[in-house]
Write a structure and sequence with these properties.
alpha/beta; Rossmann fold; 8 helices; 8 strands
Length: 279
């Protein structure tokens, strides 16, 4: 990050855990306020960091006039659902409380994540005002935690259907229902034993006609999070919110976290969606 002149690193947005930190990057030029790419890293809800290689495609937003905010949150080894989601929402409230200090336009926040980070990004988009996920203990409770747009890169949406979908596509491993799976560790129990908790962690349970526009991208050869997860989200959005509220790209030949998501051509497509919908 040394080439980025305007940045603030490891800002605490809450005080319960050392994980509750975020980084802010601003474009090299301009006074703002800048629209915000809110980057939520993936890592099976258990690993990853706000400053690892996953941040690279999001940082290209700096050259397009966006601020970039990258957030850490409590991972499943420290605290189970809904702690990590509560953290991401607390970070959004903190940003709104401090928007003027960092030249941020918090009416134009784009939540963007890959894999488990995409689950969080979509959850943030569809659960505005859901009291279970806005923990006042984390601070700034008078500020909103909603976002204007969501970009979902190959996110899991319904944990209990993943193994069946992978088997149908002859992809694998088929182990999401195991007690040691990332999803089971995230929820604190084998997912097949806690279907109601699985539903609480699924964006599909909260889709309504107020959801922000969502861009969904998923590779058809994803052997970790089946592409049918994105089809389920698209079907729910089409039924409840309307076909105009989302766009979906199912990408031939791409696997999970495929480098081709980060090509200049695909990033141009993503930012075209963002700019059109923000305007």
């Amino acid at each position: 990050m040394s080439h980025i002149a305007r940045k603030w690193l490891d800002l605490p947005y809450a005080t319960l855990s050392p994980a509750q930190r975020l980084d802010i990057y601003l474009p090299a030029h301009g006074d703002g306020p800048f629209p915000v790419i809110f980057s939520i890293h993936g890592g099976a809800f258990a690993i990853g960091d706000k400053r690892d290689v996953q941040l690279s495609p999001f940082l290209t937003g700096l050259d397009r006039g966006f601020a970039v905010v990258s957030v850490n949150y409590r991972l499943s080894g420290e605290a189970i659902f809904p702690a990590g989601l509560q953290d991401t929402k607390a970070a959004l409230r903190w940003l709104r409380a401090h928007a003027a200090e960092y030249s941020l336009d918090t009416d134009r926040i784009v939540a963007w994540g890959g894999s488990s980070g995409a689950n969080y990004a979509v959850m943030v988009g569809v659960t505005a005002g859901e009291p279970l996920f806005d923990d006042p203990v984390l601070g700034n409770e008078t500020f909103a935690s909603d976002v204007a747009l969501v970009v979902d890169w190959y996110g899991p949406m319904d944990f209990l259907t993943m193994d069946c979908q992978l088997a149908q596509s002859c992809l694998g491993p088929v182990d999401h229902n195991e007690p040691w799976s990332p999803e089971s560790r995230y929820l604190g129990a084998k997912i097949t034993d806690v279907p109601e908790k699985v539903r609480s962690a699924s964006p599909l349970a909260y889709v309504d006609d107020r959801v922000p526009p969502i861009l969904i991208q998923h590779g058809l050869m994803d052997n970790l999070v089946p592409y049918q997860q994105s089809e389920q989200l698209a079907a729910a959005l089409a039924t409840v919110a309307g076909r105009e509220r989302f766009e979906i790209d199912l990408l031939e030949g791409l696997g999970h976290a495929d480098p081709r998501f980060e090509t200049p051509e695909n990033l141009d497509r993503v930012f075209r969606f963002i700019k059109e919908r923000l305007s």
